[in-house]
Amino acid sequence: MQAGKFGVGVYNIDGSLYAIANYCSHEGAPLCAGYVRGTTEFAPEMPDQIRHVREGQIARCPWHQWEFDITTGANLADPRKRVRTYEVDVSDGQVYLTA
Amino acid sequence: MSIIDANVQPHFRYNAEIRRYLSAPHKLRSIPDVEQQWYQAPGGDYRQDLYGDHYPGSDPDTVARHLFDEGGVDLAILNPLTRGNIADYLLNSRLCAAINDWLLDRWLEPDTTGRFLGTIRVNPEDVKGAVAEIERLADHPKMVQVGVPLQSREPYGKPMFEPIWEAAAAHGLPVAVHINGGNGVDHAPTFAGHAFTYPGYAAFMPLNSFVHLATLIIEGMFGRHQNLKFVFADGGYDILTPLMWRLDTFWMSMRDQTPWVDRYPSEYLPDHVRFCSSAFDGPTDDSHAERWLNYTDKADLLMYGSSYPHWSTSSPDTVVAGLNDVQREKVLWRNASDLYGVASHVEGSRS
Fold first, then answer.
1. Which of B251, B256, B264 minimises the CB distance to A40?
2. Residue A17 structural domain
3. I need a surface site. Which of B151, B163, B278, B342 has the fewest CB within 10 A?
4. Domain span at residue B14?
5. What is the pLDDT of residue B351?
6. A55 interface with B at CB cutoff 8 Å
7. What are the pLDDT digits (tens) for B271-295?
8. What is the pTM of this model?
9. What is the CATH number for A78?
10. Identity of the residue in B251, B259, B264 whose CB atom sits nearest the CB atom of A50
11. In chain A, how many domains are there?
Protein backbone atom coordinates (compact mmCIF):
# COMPACT_ATOMS: atom_id res chain seq x y z
CA MET A 1 0.00 0.00 0.00
CA GLN A 2 1.00 3.62 -0.51
CA ALA A 3 2.41 5.02 2.71
CA GLY A 4 5.43 7.19 3.34
CA LYS A 5 8.07 7.62 0.67
CA PHE A 6 8.52 4.05 -0.54
CA GLY A 7 5.32 2.26 0.36
CA VAL A 8 4.67 -0.50 2.87
CA GLY A 9 3.91 -4.18 2.31
CA VAL A 10 1.14 -5.62 4.49
CA TYR A 11 1.10 -9.41 4.83
CA ASN A 12 -1.43 -11.84 6.20
CA ILE A 13 0.47 -14.75 7.68
CA ASP A 14 -1.84 -17.42 9.08
CA GLY A 15 -4.42 -14.79 10.05
CA SER A 16 -2.03 -12.31 11.64
CA LEU A 17 -1.13 -9.04 9.92
CA TYR A 18 2.43 -7.75 9.57
CA ALA A 19 3.90 -4.80 7.68
CA ILE A 20 7.41 -4.04 6.42
CA ALA A 21 8.85 -1.07 4.56
CA ASN A 22 9.09 -1.56 0.81
CA TYR A 23 12.75 -0.59 1.06
CA CYS A 24 15.55 -3.14 1.33
CA SER A 25 18.21 -2.34 3.94
CA HIS A 26 20.89 -3.25 1.38
CA GLU A 27 20.47 -0.85 -1.55
CA GLY A 28 16.89 0.39 -1.25
CA ALA A 29 15.24 -2.02 -3.67
CA PRO A 30 11.43 -2.41 -3.62
CA LEU A 31 11.57 -5.33 -1.22
CA CYS A 32 7.89 -6.19 -1.38
CA ALA A 33 8.10 -6.82 -5.14
CA GLY A 34 10.11 -9.96 -4.42
CA TYR A 35 8.84 -13.46 -3.68
CA VAL A 36 7.32 -14.41 -0.36
CA ARG A 37 8.52 -17.86 0.58
CA GLY A 38 10.05 -19.92 3.33
CA THR A 39 13.69 -20.38 4.25
CA THR A 40 16.10 -23.14 5.22
CA GLU A 41 17.71 -24.33 8.38
CA PHE A 42 20.56 -26.76 9.00
CA ALA A 43 19.21 -30.26 9.59
CA PRO A 44 22.07 -32.76 9.82
CA GLU A 45 19.66 -35.69 10.01
CA MET A 46 18.12 -34.96 6.58
CA PRO A 47 19.61 -36.45 3.38
CA ASP A 48 20.41 -32.97 2.03
CA GLN A 49 20.99 -31.55 5.54
CA ILE A 50 18.41 -28.83 4.82
CA ARG A 51 14.94 -28.36 6.25
CA HIS A 52 12.40 -25.96 4.70
CA VAL A 53 10.80 -23.81 7.40
CA ARG A 54 8.79 -20.60 7.98
CA GLU A 55 6.87 -20.94 4.67
CA GLY A 56 5.08 -17.71 3.75
CA GLN A 57 7.04 -15.73 6.34
CA ILE A 58 10.13 -14.64 4.41
CA ALA A 59 10.37 -11.72 1.99
CA ARG A 60 13.11 -12.17 -0.58
CA CYS A 61 14.51 -8.99 -2.10
CA PRO A 62 14.09 -8.94 -5.89
CA TRP A 63 17.52 -7.43 -6.47
CA HIS A 64 20.09 -9.46 -4.51
CA GLN A 65 17.96 -12.11 -2.84
CA TRP A 66 18.50 -10.99 0.74
CA GLU A 67 16.03 -12.73 3.07
CA PHE A 68 13.92 -10.92 5.69
CA ASP A 69 11.54 -12.34 8.26
CA ILE A 70 8.32 -10.39 7.69
CA THR A 71 7.23 -10.89 11.32
CA THR A 72 10.35 -9.28 12.83
CA GLY A 73 12.09 -7.36 10.03
CA ALA A 74 15.30 -9.26 10.73
CA ASN A 75 17.65 -10.20 7.91
CA LEU A 76 18.26 -13.95 8.15
CA ALA A 77 21.99 -13.80 7.43
CA ASP A 78 22.87 -10.77 9.51
CA PRO A 79 20.15 -9.72 11.99
CA ARG A 80 21.73 -6.29 12.31
CA LYS A 81 20.63 -5.49 8.75
CA ARG A 82 16.95 -5.07 9.59
CA VAL A 83 14.10 -3.74 7.52
CA ARG A 84 11.59 -1.44 9.19
CA THR A 85 8.37 -2.99 10.53
CA TYR A 86 5.03 -1.41 11.41
CA GLU A 87 2.20 -2.33 13.69
CA VAL A 88 -0.98 -3.13 11.72
CA ASP A 89 -4.53 -2.51 12.94
CA VAL A 90 -7.75 -2.96 10.95
CA SER A 91 -10.79 -1.01 12.04
CA ASP A 92 -14.06 -0.58 10.07
CA GLY A 93 -12.36 -1.86 6.90
CA GLN A 94 -9.52 0.66 7.20
CA VAL A 95 -5.90 -0.48 7.62
CA TYR A 96 -3.88 1.59 10.10
CA LEU A 97 -0.08 1.41 10.20
CA THR A 98 1.77 2.67 13.28
CA ALA A 99 5.41 3.62 12.82
CA MET B 1 62.27 -10.33 19.91
CA SER B 2 61.65 -14.06 19.56
CA ILE B 3 61.22 -15.51 16.10
CA ILE B 4 59.45 -18.69 15.02
CA ASP B 5 60.04 -19.83 11.45
CA ALA B 6 56.85 -21.72 10.58
CA ASN B 7 57.89 -22.92 7.15
CA VAL B 8 61.22 -24.67 6.53
CA GLN B 9 61.75 -27.43 3.96
CA PRO B 10 64.42 -29.92 5.02
CA HIS B 11 65.70 -32.08 2.18
CA PHE B 12 67.23 -35.46 1.56
CA ARG B 13 70.95 -35.35 0.91
CA TYR B 14 70.26 -36.89 -2.50
CA ASN B 15 67.07 -38.09 -4.19
CA ALA B 16 67.72 -41.79 -3.62
CA GLU B 17 68.14 -41.36 0.14
CA ILE B 18 64.40 -41.88 0.53
CA ARG B 19 64.81 -45.51 -0.55
CA ARG B 20 66.61 -46.32 2.70
CA TYR B 21 63.36 -45.58 4.52
CA LEU B 22 61.06 -47.58 2.21
CA SER B 23 60.18 -51.21 2.90
CA ALA B 24 61.29 -53.96 0.51
CA PRO B 25 58.18 -54.04 -1.74
CA HIS B 26 58.55 -50.33 -2.52
CA LYS B 27 62.29 -49.79 -2.49
CA LEU B 28 62.75 -50.41 -6.20
CA ARG B 29 59.72 -48.54 -7.52
CA SER B 30 60.26 -45.48 -9.68
CA ILE B 31 59.62 -42.26 -7.78
CA PRO B 32 59.61 -38.66 -9.08
CA ASP B 33 62.59 -36.53 -8.10
CA VAL B 34 61.79 -33.77 -5.66
CA GLU B 35 62.80 -31.13 -8.23
CA GLN B 36 60.82 -32.70 -11.10
CA GLN B 37 58.76 -29.66 -11.94
CA TRP B 38 57.89 -28.07 -15.26
CA TYR B 39 58.36 -24.51 -14.07
CA GLN B 40 61.92 -23.78 -13.07
CA ALA B 41 62.73 -20.88 -10.79
CA PRO B 42 65.53 -18.59 -11.97
CA GLY B 43 68.78 -20.44 -11.24
CA GLY B 44 67.00 -23.47 -9.78
CA ASP B 45 64.41 -23.95 -7.07
CA TYR B 46 66.83 -23.51 -4.19
CA ARG B 47 69.25 -20.85 -3.10
CA GLN B 48 72.29 -21.22 -5.30
CA ASP B 49 74.72 -20.63 -2.47
CA LEU B 50 73.33 -23.68 -0.67
CA TYR B 51 74.21 -26.28 -3.31
CA GLY B 52 77.23 -28.29 -2.24
CA ASP B 53 78.06 -31.98 -2.14
CA HIS B 54 74.49 -32.63 -1.03
CA TYR B 55 71.11 -31.08 -1.53
CA PRO B 56 70.36 -27.59 -0.14
CA GLY B 57 68.75 -27.79 3.28
CA SER B 58 69.88 -31.38 3.80
CA ASP B 59 72.40 -31.02 6.62
CA PRO B 60 70.83 -30.32 10.04
CA ASP B 61 73.94 -28.56 11.37
CA THR B 62 74.12 -26.23 8.37
CA VAL B 63 70.40 -25.49 8.52
CA ALA B 64 70.65 -24.82 12.26
CA ARG B 65 73.57 -22.46 11.70
CA HIS B 66 71.73 -20.53 8.97
CA LEU B 67 68.40 -20.31 10.77
CA PHE B 68 69.28 -20.10 14.43
CA ASP B 69 72.83 -18.74 14.68
CA GLU B 70 72.85 -16.37 11.72
CA GLY B 71 69.10 -15.78 11.21
CA GLY B 72 68.10 -15.22 14.84
CA VAL B 73 65.30 -17.80 14.72
CA ASP B 74 64.40 -19.58 18.00
CA LEU B 75 62.23 -22.38 16.70
CA ALA B 76 61.67 -23.85 13.21
CA ILE B 77 58.76 -25.93 11.96
CA LEU B 78 60.11 -28.44 9.43
CA ASN B 79 57.72 -29.34 6.62
CA PRO B 80 59.47 -31.62 4.10
CA LEU B 81 58.09 -31.92 0.58
CA THR B 82 56.91 -35.29 -0.65
CA ARG B 83 56.81 -36.31 -4.30
CA GLY B 84 53.57 -35.04 -5.78
CA ASN B 85 50.32 -36.90 -6.16
CA ILE B 86 51.38 -40.29 -7.48
CA ALA B 87 48.91 -42.42 -9.45
CA ASP B 88 49.64 -45.36 -7.14
CA TYR B 89 48.21 -43.76 -4.02
CA LEU B 90 49.22 -46.68 -1.83
CA LEU B 91 52.85 -46.20 -2.88
CA ASN B 92 52.47 -42.50 -2.17
CA SER B 93 51.32 -43.23 1.38
CA ARG B 94 54.45 -45.36 1.91
CA LEU B 95 56.54 -42.45 0.57
CA CYS B 96 54.90 -40.12 3.09
CA ALA B 97 55.61 -42.63 5.87
CA ALA B 98 59.23 -42.95 4.70
CA ILE B 99 59.63 -39.18 4.73
CA ASN B 100 58.18 -39.04 8.25
CA ASP B 101 60.56 -41.76 9.44
CA TRP B 102 63.44 -39.93 7.79
CA LEU B 103 62.44 -36.64 9.44
CA LEU B 104 62.43 -38.32 12.84
CA ASP B 105 65.64 -40.24 12.21
CA ARG B 106 67.76 -37.50 10.67
CA TRP B 107 66.32 -34.29 12.14
CA LEU B 108 64.00 -34.51 15.10
CA GLU B 109 65.42 -37.26 17.26
CA PRO B 110 69.13 -36.33 16.97
CA ASP B 111 68.31 -32.70 17.83
CA THR B 112 68.88 -32.22 21.54
CA THR B 113 68.19 -28.47 21.52
CA GLY B 114 64.43 -28.82 20.85
CA ARG B 115 64.53 -26.12 18.18
CA PHE B 116 63.29 -28.31 15.31
CA LEU B 117 59.63 -29.34 15.25
CA GLY B 118 58.11 -31.49 12.54
CA THR B 119 55.21 -32.22 10.22
CA ILE B 120 53.44 -35.54 9.68
CA ARG B 121 53.20 -35.78 5.90
CA VAL B 122 50.14 -37.67 4.68
CA ASN B 123 48.63 -38.49 1.29
CA PRO B 124 45.05 -37.16 1.05
CA GLU B 125 44.39 -39.38 -1.99
CA ASP B 126 44.50 -42.34 0.42
CA VAL B 127 42.15 -41.34 3.20
CA LYS B 128 42.52 -44.50 5.30
CA GLY B 129 46.29 -44.43 4.91
CA ALA B 130 46.42 -40.76 5.88
CA VAL B 131 44.37 -41.33 9.03
CA ALA B 132 46.55 -44.33 9.95
CA GLU B 133 49.72 -42.24 9.52
CA ILE B 134 48.32 -39.50 11.76
CA GLU B 135 47.42 -42.09 14.40
CA ARG B 136 50.92 -43.61 14.14
CA LEU B 137 52.77 -40.37 14.81
CA ALA B 138 50.41 -37.86 16.42
CA ASP B 139 51.66 -38.51 19.92
CA HIS B 140 55.29 -37.82 19.07
CA PRO B 141 56.10 -34.67 21.05
CA LYS B 142 58.01 -33.07 18.18
CA MET B 143 55.32 -33.59 15.54
CA VAL B 144 53.20 -30.43 15.66
CA GLN B 145 51.17 -30.49 12.45
CA VAL B 146 49.92 -32.58 9.54
CA GLY B 147 51.17 -31.71 6.04
CA VAL B 148 49.36 -32.09 2.71
CA PRO B 149 50.11 -30.82 -0.84
CA LEU B 150 48.51 -27.68 -2.24
CA GLN B 151 48.05 -29.69 -5.44
CA SER B 152 44.90 -31.73 -5.09
CA ARG B 153 42.44 -33.19 -7.55
CA GLU B 154 39.53 -32.15 -5.35
CA PRO B 155 39.19 -29.14 -3.04
CA TYR B 156 39.89 -29.99 0.59
CA GLY B 157 36.40 -28.97 1.72
CA LYS B 158 34.96 -32.07 0.04
CA PRO B 159 33.50 -34.59 2.49
CA MET B 160 35.74 -37.39 1.19
CA PHE B 161 38.66 -35.79 3.07
CA GLU B 162 36.76 -35.30 6.32
CA PRO B 163 38.20 -38.32 8.20
CA ILE B 164 41.72 -36.90 7.72
CA TRP B 165 40.82 -33.47 9.03
CA GLU B 166 38.85 -35.06 11.86
CA ALA B 167 41.88 -37.10 12.93
CA ALA B 168 44.16 -34.05 12.80
CA ALA B 169 41.70 -31.97 14.82
CA ALA B 170 41.22 -34.75 17.37
CA HIS B 171 44.97 -34.64 18.07
CA GLY B 172 45.10 -30.85 18.09
CA LEU B 173 47.30 -30.80 14.98
CA PRO B 174 46.88 -27.99 12.42
CA VAL B 175 46.91 -29.06 8.76
CA ALA B 176 49.58 -27.29 6.70
CA VAL B 177 49.01 -26.94 2.95
CA HIS B 178 52.17 -26.37 0.92
CA ILE B 179 53.09 -26.64 -2.76
CA ASN B 180 54.59 -30.08 -3.15
CA GLY B 181 57.81 -31.09 -4.83
CA GLY B 182 57.92 -33.66 -7.58
CA ASN B 183 55.48 -33.45 -10.42
CA GLY B 184 52.74 -36.03 -10.11
CA VAL B 185 49.16 -36.52 -11.21
CA ASP B 186 48.04 -32.93 -10.87
CA HIS B 187 45.66 -30.46 -12.44
CA ALA B 188 47.09 -27.50 -14.35
CA PRO B 189 48.50 -24.98 -11.87
CA THR B 190 46.17 -22.15 -12.84
CA PHE B 191 42.42 -22.09 -13.40
CA ALA B 192 43.10 -21.22 -17.05
CA GLY B 193 45.52 -24.05 -17.66
CA HIS B 194 49.30 -24.08 -17.86
CA ALA B 195 51.16 -20.83 -17.38
CA PHE B 196 53.73 -19.92 -20.00
CA THR B 197 56.65 -19.05 -17.73
CA TYR B 198 57.73 -19.46 -14.10
CA PRO B 199 56.43 -16.00 -13.07
CA GLY B 200 53.00 -16.95 -14.38
CA TYR B 201 53.13 -20.17 -12.40
CA ALA B 202 54.46 -18.59 -9.21
CA ALA B 203 52.02 -15.67 -9.36
CA PHE B 204 48.90 -17.77 -9.74
CA MET B 205 49.65 -21.07 -8.02
CA PRO B 206 48.84 -19.72 -4.50
CA LEU B 207 45.31 -18.85 -5.67
CA ASN B 208 44.62 -22.56 -5.30
CA SER B 209 44.82 -22.04 -1.53
CA PHE B 210 41.68 -19.99 -1.71
CA VAL B 211 39.78 -22.78 -3.47
CA HIS B 212 40.60 -25.11 -0.57
CA LEU B 213 39.78 -22.41 1.97
CA ALA B 214 36.45 -21.44 0.38
CA THR B 215 35.25 -25.05 0.22
CA LEU B 216 36.34 -25.74 3.80
CA ILE B 217 34.09 -22.87 4.89
CA ILE B 218 31.16 -23.31 2.51
CA GLU B 219 30.92 -27.09 2.79
CA GLY B 220 30.80 -26.73 6.56
CA MET B 221 34.09 -28.40 7.50
CA PHE B 222 35.05 -25.68 9.98
CA GLY B 223 31.51 -25.53 11.32
CA ARG B 224 31.55 -29.25 12.10
CA HIS B 225 35.07 -29.35 13.55
CA GLN B 226 35.62 -26.59 16.06
CA ASN B 227 39.22 -27.66 16.61
CA LEU B 228 40.20 -27.88 12.91
CA LYS B 229 42.88 -25.43 11.81
CA PHE B 230 44.47 -24.98 8.40
CA VAL B 231 47.79 -23.30 7.66
CA PHE B 232 48.33 -22.13 4.09
CA ALA B 233 52.09 -22.22 4.04
CA ASP B 234 52.76 -20.82 0.57
CA GLY B 235 51.22 -17.38 0.84
CA GLY B 236 48.06 -16.34 -0.95
CA TYR B 237 47.04 -13.94 1.84
CA ASP B 238 47.44 -10.94 -0.44
CA ILE B 239 44.34 -12.08 -2.33
CA LEU B 240 42.52 -13.08 0.85
CA THR B 241 40.67 -9.82 1.45
CA PRO B 242 38.98 -9.32 -1.94
CA LEU B 243 38.04 -12.98 -2.16
CA MET B 244 36.62 -13.02 1.38
CA TRP B 245 34.63 -9.88 0.60
CA ARG B 246 33.27 -11.72 -2.42
CA LEU B 247 32.40 -14.80 -0.37
CA ASP B 248 30.72 -12.70 2.35
CA THR B 249 28.69 -10.87 -0.28
CA PHE B 250 27.43 -14.02 -1.95
CA TRP B 251 26.62 -15.54 1.43
CA MET B 252 24.29 -12.61 2.18
CA SER B 253 22.37 -13.45 -1.00
CA MET B 254 22.47 -17.24 -0.94
CA ARG B 255 22.77 -18.21 2.69
CA ASP B 256 19.71 -20.45 2.30
CA GLN B 257 21.68 -22.86 0.08
CA THR B 258 24.22 -23.57 2.85
CA PRO B 259 22.36 -23.04 6.15
CA TRP B 260 25.18 -24.75 8.08
CA VAL B 261 27.28 -21.64 7.41
CA ASP B 262 25.84 -19.69 10.32
CA ARG B 263 28.08 -16.61 10.17
CA TYR B 264 29.88 -14.52 7.57
CA PRO B 265 32.46 -16.78 5.87
CA SER B 266 35.22 -14.38 6.91
CA GLU B 267 34.26 -14.89 10.57
CA TYR B 268 35.69 -18.42 10.41
CA LEU B 269 39.20 -17.15 9.74
CA PRO B 270 40.39 -16.23 13.26
CA ASP B 271 39.56 -19.64 14.75
CA HIS B 272 40.52 -21.85 11.83
CA VAL B 273 42.99 -20.31 9.37
CA ARG B 274 46.60 -19.14 9.34
CA PHE B 275 49.03 -18.24 6.55
CA CYS B 276 52.81 -18.43 6.36
CA SER B 277 54.57 -15.44 4.90
CA SER B 278 55.79 -15.53 1.34
CA ALA B 279 58.28 -13.35 -0.48
CA PHE B 280 55.69 -12.68 -3.17
CA ASP B 281 52.78 -11.48 -1.05
CA GLY B 282 52.06 -7.97 0.09
CA PRO B 283 52.62 -4.46 -1.13
CA THR B 284 55.81 -3.66 -3.01
CA ASP B 285 55.89 -0.31 -1.20
CA ASP B 286 56.54 -0.84 2.54
CA SER B 287 54.68 2.36 3.41
CA HIS B 288 51.42 0.53 2.60
CA ALA B 289 52.26 -2.56 4.66
CA GLU B 290 50.83 -1.58 8.05
CA ARG B 291 47.41 -0.60 6.71
CA TRP B 292 47.32 -3.46 4.22
CA LEU B 293 47.92 -6.05 6.96
CA ASN B 294 44.89 -4.78 8.87
CA TYR B 295 42.49 -5.71 6.09
CA THR B 296 40.71 -8.94 7.10
CA ASP B 297 42.73 -8.77 10.36
CA LYS B 298 45.67 -10.45 8.68
CA ALA B 299 47.95 -9.49 11.57
CA ASP B 300 46.20 -12.26 13.53
CA LEU B 301 46.51 -14.77 10.68
CA LEU B 302 50.04 -14.39 9.43
CA MET B 303 53.11 -16.29 10.68
CA TYR B 304 56.67 -15.75 9.56
CA GLY B 305 57.86 -18.60 7.32
CA SER B 306 61.19 -18.39 5.52
CA SER B 307 60.68 -21.10 2.86
CA TYR B 308 64.36 -21.95 3.47
CA PRO B 309 66.16 -23.22 1.37
CA HIS B 310 63.94 -22.12 -1.51
CA TRP B 311 65.39 -19.52 -3.89
CA SER B 312 62.88 -16.98 -2.55
CA THR B 313 63.82 -17.51 1.12
CA SER B 314 62.78 -14.43 3.05
CA SER B 315 64.36 -13.06 6.20
CA PRO B 316 62.32 -11.94 9.22
CA ASP B 317 63.30 -8.31 8.55
CA THR B 318 61.91 -8.26 5.02
CA VAL B 319 58.65 -9.92 6.06
CA VAL B 320 57.84 -7.35 8.77
CA ALA B 321 59.16 -4.28 6.94
CA GLY B 322 56.71 -1.42 7.38
CA LEU B 323 54.66 -3.13 10.11
CA ASN B 324 54.02 -1.63 13.53
CA ASP B 325 55.37 -3.20 16.74
CA VAL B 326 52.20 -5.11 17.60
CA GLN B 327 51.94 -6.53 14.09
CA ARG B 328 55.62 -7.50 14.10
CA GLU B 329 55.29 -9.40 17.35
CA LYS B 330 52.26 -11.32 16.08
CA VAL B 331 53.84 -12.20 12.74
CA LEU B 332 57.30 -13.08 14.02
CA TRP B 333 56.28 -15.37 16.86
CA ARG B 334 53.05 -14.81 18.76
CA ASN B 335 50.64 -16.24 16.17
CA ALA B 336 52.79 -19.33 15.65
CA SER B 337 53.37 -19.72 19.38
CA ASP B 338 49.61 -19.71 20.01
CA LEU B 339 48.87 -22.07 17.13
CA TYR B 340 51.51 -24.67 17.96
CA GLY B 341 51.30 -24.28 21.72
CA VAL B 342 55.00 -23.60 22.12
CA ALA B 343 54.73 -20.47 24.26
CA SER B 344 56.88 -21.87 27.06
CA HIS B 345 59.72 -22.62 24.70
CA VAL B 346 59.63 -19.21 23.05
CA GLU B 347 59.23 -17.27 26.30
CA GLY B 348 62.15 -19.22 27.72
CA SER B 349 64.39 -18.20 24.85
CA ARG B 350 63.50 -14.52 24.88
CA SER B 351 66.39 -12.29 25.71
1. B256
2. 8-98
3. B163
4. 4-350
5. 43
6. no
7. 999 999 999 899 999 999 999 999 9
8. 0.94
9. 2.102.10.10
10. B259
11. 1
Confidence check on the interface: ipTM exceeds 0.85, yes or no: yes
DSSP A53: E
What does the pLDDT average to over A72-96?
A: 95
Residues B196-236 pLDDT 10s = 999 999 888 999 999 999 999 999 999 999 999 999 999 99
Interface residue of B218, B219, B252, B254 to substitute, partner A, most A CBs within 10 Å? B252
The answer to whether residue A23 neighbours chain B at the CB level (below 8 Å) is: no
pLDDT of B36 > 80? The answer is: no
- Let me know: does B120 contact B134? Beta carbons within 8 Å: yes
Is residue A2 included in any domain, yes or no?
no
Considering only residues 243 to 282 of chain B, which have any Cβ-Cβ distance to chain A shorter than 8 Å?
251-257, 259-260, 262, 264
